[in-house]
Amino acid sequence: MTDDVVEGVDPNEWSPRIAVVGGGVSGYGAARRLHTDFPRARIHIYDRNDWHHYSACGMTFALEGLYPMDGVVLHTPEEYDQMGIEVHEKVEVTGIDLERRTLDTTPGNPVRFDVLVLATGRNPLIPPITGVDLPGVHTLSNYGDGERLMAAMEGSQRAVVIGGGAIGLETAVALNARGLDVTVVEMLPHLMPQMLDGDLAKVVREHLEGLGIRVLTGMSVGRLDPSPDGRVGSAEVLGESIPADLVVISTGIRPEASLAEVAGLDKGTTGGFATDSHMRVLRTGEPVDRVYAIGDCAEVRHAILGRRTLSPLASTAFYEARTIAHHLVDPTYEHRPVVAPAVVVIGGLHVGGVGVTEGGGAHFGLETWGVTASGLDRSRYFPGADLIHLRLVGDAGGHIVGAQAVASRDVNDRVNLFALVISEDIPAERLVDMERAFSPPVQLLADPLVGLLDEFIGVRDALRD
Amino acid sequence: MTDDVVEGVDPNEWSPRIAVVGGGVSGYGAARRLHTDFPRARIHIYDRNDWHHYSACGMTFALEGLYPMDGVVLHTPEEYDQMGIEVHEKVEVTGIDLERRTLDTTPGNPVRFDVLVLATGRNPLIPPITGVDLPGVHTLSNYGDGERLMAAMEGSQRAVVIGGGAIGLETAVALNARGLDVTVVEMLPHLMPQMLDGDLAKVVREHLEGLGIRVLTGMSVGRLDPSPDGRVGSAEVLGESIPADLVVISTGIRPEASLAEVAGLDKGTTGGFATDSHMRVLRTGEPVDRVYAIGDCAEVRHAILGRRTLSPLASTAFYEARTIAHHLVDPTYEHRPVVAPAVVVIGGLHVGGVGVTEGGGAHFGLETWGVTASGLDRSRYFPGADLIHLRLVGDAGGHIVGAQAVASRDVNDRVNLFALVISEDIPAERLVDMERAFSPPVQLLADPLVGLLDEFIGVRDALRD
């Protein structure tokens, strides 16, 4: 079960039985990738639910009304069957025999596998608040949640969203767009603390308030109270009773890795499956040959923090599926440590981040500092020129370790640029000397990023003196 | 006049006389940059015209009607005077005494300089066609040209644009938007040969034809014929007489470096001022201390071709101005060889390129090859998902040496990403392993770039075998 006894396979000759546990973004993504790369493989997806291959990231925009909820369904099980990928819905995997390489399933008989992909996902983290089990209290963690929330919006007037992260805010915007009075309650001092530092979070807050959404930060919901009909009626925050006939809890997730106990696999400090650098699961510290965990249930290495972390992004799952396919062919192939570039669109505002925030870095013992700049995103005489807000985070060595952007557009590719800069540890003075394309409709000649990089270099040099 | 006798200056103490020759994008850009970095400097701009600081790249969109022509004027001479930058309009520099460090000006007396910036720009390249001097034949090389063309569009019905490069096509779109029947004639086999290879140029062609613009490639205008009123009346192309009461010539530029002869400065093979790696001009091969040439009149080093080239982009001029400011403080500071990322917007279609094309590389003796892919630019269920066309060019060593993109948006930052990749020589397998931010409204999870990079690696490895 170590690298030296395993050889890579020939993609066109090899015909393994591949079992994928979990029918979410990462499970379906892995099945499709492996199907493409190993055309002779027999692939089975086991999903304890009956939700088809859908885009979880697309649900909030369906809630907002941009398209019907089933627009996010990418493929049906029938389409998979036609491709040659067998989908077993409402089938739960209850056990793994790693010696015999079989899965116990309910209902069903044990099934054999040559390759196993654990993509069991996550569960919403529900805070221990009185009243969280009242009718009218929702989470948005899977397709069924989306359908239920879509139905619940009808006839609701007031909503409280608990949690000011990306999904919470996208959901708040959707509820607001559907005509509900919305209040967002975030426990930490500013919105989107995973992605942004305070100064850029302020821009998001002002945007939401401009839409008519009430934002409370540094506060917790103490209690959810029922209305006379037995459904949720209000949320208590610092003594204030905020009326709410709909509550959405979006306070984070925890990995669903309960199969680890069943199969004797290692879990990391995050609660997710421990993995090696090839995304293989570990048993008492040793990698298990051709058994992988990916997606929200699996730990990955963080490129900046150097520690195991969770990266519950669809994009991370996409790259993990890619890693499995590569690793089966080339046993030396490693999954790259994550910098987790992320972008979300919140009521038309594009918000992105990559690497660590100043606050997040400090939380993990990294000495961090940051610089922020705002400027026009295209020539001032061009119709629609708008502000873009940028932030860079440095470490004690002067490396760029994080970048953030908030603007009405063009955030994702700036985040992608910095994913490369941070991954490849490109110094700020190399980046600032790099030419940038200019055309009045798309970018300012003196792009705000250039000034920000100059400032970054100035602060860095001053810190060194 | 060599580096070892020159020391850097203290930006806050130094109070030089700085003369800038030329009132275009690069001249005004240099003046502003030096004014900002050296607050005690006395800066004089000598412009033989009376056009103020304007954005040349913005003129075609004014012609199209997106804003008035004077919207592209960024600052007036009066505003410069208030900043402390003196603008001398209609003053021609006729001589340079490099020993005395003075300029001869007409009208005016000789003026002294400590630092000289030559930003004399370019002239349009006029092909030797019979009839090019007829009334109704225009170029679009400076603000005066823009005003004249704007006036000429009124009452014109049919236009021929000679030259299918970026400016020619933006102008063709503007004329089309103003209701003229437009024919574009490009001598080379496909449009935009400087920026694109044939497969991506085809997308541009189809877009223009969709707008109702006629496109002729691989053909030349043989002759311009007058109408009875003595103005241009038609253009002859391969025996066909194409009616045209307005003709725009956009067949390239040549650097305006006639001061080189006057001052005994070196010119390169391109006809531009020869420069060293600090953008200093050369005299019999030796750099002249604190005399720089930038913009369209100056040669730069090309990062891929390793030769002297012209890079007549506003963005190149911006970085050259930055280089002068840095070099005055730190005599070791070098201008980075250019990869010339460029983007233009042609009737809503965004077109970008960086590095070399396959054809351009081959022209200069580089062994080049390329791969192309098209795919959706966002999740297929998201309203407005559209195609993006991408191309990568490799050299014999398997390095990425060029990238091209054509799409309805999001081209400039992809070009900027590849400016970094090419400049830093980041291998394709590093880039393809890099996570990319995902959100349904802004990018596909399996972005077409990922598949294209995989294909690039496959072709590269096959070429190596």
What is the gist of this entry?
The structure is a homodimer of 465-residue chains. Chain A is 26% helix and 29% strand.
Core attributes:
homodimer; 465 residues; FAD/NAD(P)-binding domain; Enolase-like, domain 1; 3 domains
Structure, described:
- Two copies of one chain form a homodimer.
- Chain A is α/β, with parallel strands linked by helices and 465 residues long.
- Chain A is built from twelve helices and 28 strands.
- In chain A, the strands form eight sheets. In chain A, strands 5-2-1-9-21-20 form a six-stranded mixed beta sheet. In chain A, strands 11-18-12-13-14 form a five-stranded parallel beta sheet, covered by helices on one side.
- In chain A, α1 packs parallel to α8 (314-329).
- The relative contact order of chain A is 0.11.
- The interface between A and B is large, with 61 and 61 residues.
